[in-house]
Batch of 2 targets.
Target 1
Amino acid sequence: MSKALKIYFLPFFAGGHVIPMVNLARLMASKGHQVTIITTPSNAKIFDKTIDDEDTCFHVHIIKFPSNQVGLPVGVENLLEAYDDQTVRQVLMAANLIQPEIEAFMKLNPPDIFIPDMVFTWSEATTKTLGIPRLIFNPISIFYFCMIKANKSIDDPKEEALLLLNDTKLDPSYVRFYESVVNSANNCDGVIVNTFLELEVEYTQLYEKLIGYKAWLIGPTSLMVQKTIGTCMNNDEHECFSFLSSKEQNSVLYISFGSMSLLSDEQLFEIARGIEASGHQFLWVVHIKNKRRDDNTKEQEEEEELKWLPKGFEEKTMKEKRGLIIKGWAPQVSILNHSSIGGFLTQCGWNAALETIGAGVPVITMPIFSDHYFNEKFITEVQGFGVEVEEGGEWSLTPYDPNKKVVSRESIEKAVKRLMDGGEERMKIRSQAKELQEKAWKAVEEGGSSQNTLTILINHLHPLILLTSETPLC
Ligand code: UDP
């Protein structure tokens, strides 16, 4: 009988990293393996409500976040809470400072295998010292990694798409950071990537050549979980669903810029005017983490809001039942899968890209920082299931760039109309989105590429390790 593997997962402190890694852990637990997520108190809150208390295969080990050492207020442990570069640097510093506590924990309770996020570049030294096999988790696209490398030098850039962004000015410090992340795969036993073979088949070989290790494509993890366990990390009770359910099929534009990006007041204002002018219905998620103060009076809140929302905008759209604004966290996967959603105006985070593929929803791309620009090219030029907002802005290193050029209402209106008005172009893009959706669901079905890869990976791991647990699969 197969024995259960004892697997430790260490997600990086960002929504776009925690969510797909917890999905992967839930998947492994659903196959009967003993999984433990090592994380800090606030990061555990991102997923703890979605975990079944009765699940004897899924465990969470809480470590302290080194708040004092990095100078962050207690409770700020994730890039979800960040609203400036300084906070990002402090969170990254904390990611390095947790090494001794994790090492001590693993020394006392060694796992069969350790799966840290790629950001934990120290994990190579730790697992080497303890003699524990290690797989790296990469939550972003293979295409993007190939592009970053292509900007430096590539032996054989036969893929035309690799040259797409060659004239983009990448900040050298950014390239250095990503090189250290790529190098974090040194001496690992492979890299697990949140993608699926049929989506990135042209780049997979090149990626493996660049990193020098086997890539295990086990995604989209959100779909793997939906298919295997039947739920996703979302709350379907949210008030937005009564709004969506009153709408016709494919008639609502979903607007969200992910978990980290903070748009300026001016940019939010232009988005409001742009969607208003387009005449289309919308569901708009706005993260106002830097605007909310506990001690704000109602008047102060209203004053604050007038900086980014045209006067009377919300009341008018609600009265006309044309739009809804969610100020805070939204159940994105469930929203995208609602039949009324006909398009997604997105920052192009890799999770957003995979989630919209899973739902067969075409997109409008408005990248904000980092890999978003590469994902935009992948979506619009390589895979053809989206349209760009023109003058989408220059490449930014950070989501908090105060000098970021504001994208005009006219550009936003034009792109919304291009996707939502109908016509031949929209039909073509929509059918491409549906085709990719089919491929993604095939990949996660029994016998599909991602399911098969997961099975092969587990079979591959067994002989690599001396099983610490004698537990049979649960
Ligand atoms: N997300 C969500 N609700 C929100 C904002 C984000 O559920 O209101 C989730 C989204 O579904 C995705 C993740 O947060 O899984 C964001 O990751 P992504 O790679 O799209 O973007 P990032 O936030 O890293 O830019």
Note: Residues 152-164 have pLDDT under 50 and may be disordered.
Target 2
Amino acid sequence: MTASVALVGVTKRFDKLVAVSSLDLEIKKGEFLSLLGPSGCGKTTTLRMIAGFIEPDEGEILIDGKPMRNVSVRRRSVGIVFQNYALFPNLNAFENIAFGMRARKIPESEIKNKVNELLELIGLSDRAKALPKELSGGQQQRVALARALAINPKVLLLDEPLSALDAKVRNALRFEIKRIQRQSGIPTLYVTHDQQEALSISDRVAIMNGGKLEQVGSPLDIYTKPRTKFVADFVGDNNFLYGTYEGDGSFVWLGRQFTVNSQEVGRKEACLVVRPERFRVVKGRSEINEITGKVSGKVFLGAMVRLAIEVAESANDLLVDLLSSDGAHFDVGAEITVSFDPDDSFLLFER
Ligand code: ATP
């Protein structure tokens, strides 16, 4: 098995700005971990510290159990792919991939075998002689990935590698990166601000906010059990209903009483979170956790439609996603009653 990476109490300041604050994080053996968060939250700084471009002010970074302080970028044996390809423009695909191996004085026959193997892995065997400018953006990024893998890195660091590509290529390459990572088993840190991307390809997702870690967990955990409002908000759209938890499994929002699942005791202010796709239309027989309102907006999303529903006394419209076939019955101005299961909602007790 290949190495793992550990960050222990890592802090990085730029003058007075704390870019990364007491970060504890582990990339386990063979794991694909995404670092997700808004612009400026410290993702790239974290990656650059693991790579060795910058040193932490406090704390320690270990690769395979070994402390990395004062170990040069090259001696850390990390493979890095940036957003903007960064291929050598005057070298063809083969030579770009071979570059790191040449620098390490690896025998020519070994280089040839390895590069050909990698060209096959990325599906570009027939483009070995192409210069970067003769390749599409997606192909260039594949070459960059192969170049990073060529040195048999202990860890792969990918910094928004797909963000310069158009949506279709991005989607295809996401799965390719995942496949290649799984085959190679190299622990990978994937920096992105795209929540969909992070949730779709990662074994675990670490969410950062203001230099700190908010939550680390499996994509499903992060999506269904966010621990903070920031996480809930950052990974997908939500309805935040501010009200009072009554301490007995019920929650009151604008005079409406809902049944919720919570082990909390005591009455307190809380926020009930319901994802738009968790609502269903109430037809006929009444159900628990109903909300009635008037459709104020409708957008077609393909398989789904999103309705904005004006609810009496609420300052915000309720967002409800329905299958297009269900949504077809409701136009702007129509009255609608929706409901949600207690299991499909969760309470946050912070403000
Ligand atoms: P983005 O998604 O926009 O790349 P990020 O989450 O990767 O953002 P970082 O690039 O790590 O964020 O930056 C974290 C904070 O540190 C930002 O406020 C940034 O302005 C600051 N910062 C980063 N590098 C430096 C530097 N070399 N000198 C001064 N400030 C820096």
Note: The pocket of adenosine-5'-triphosphate is lined by residues 14, 17, 19, 37, 39-45, 193 (CB under 6 Å).
